[in-house]
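ok trying this again, last paste got cut off
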Amino acid sequence: MTTEIKPTAFKNGAPKAERNGMFGNELRLIEAAKAGERITAIVTYEIPKVIHDEIADEKYPIVAAVHIEPLFDEERAAAAGKLQAAEYKARTGEGALDFGDMEDED
């Protein structure tokens, strides 16, 4: 019996079709999962609204991914990783983020 390949599923929604480079790359993603690899991607977000809770006097933005493009090319992924590390350091003052023993947050 052949295993049927289904479209990639995302928690809490994700861009559809041409705005989501994960779709159509299921076999690559399955192979990456088997190898224990992480995929670096460029993600564009929009902030469609800001919620204001008048009772608690709190505001918070709602953020939605509008374009995801995975970087399967090693050189591009490495270049993006350097940019990511630089932005992380600028934002936190810390060195590179350690993904070592990161557990799934489901």
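PB: full thing came through this time. Strands lie at 41-53, 58-70.
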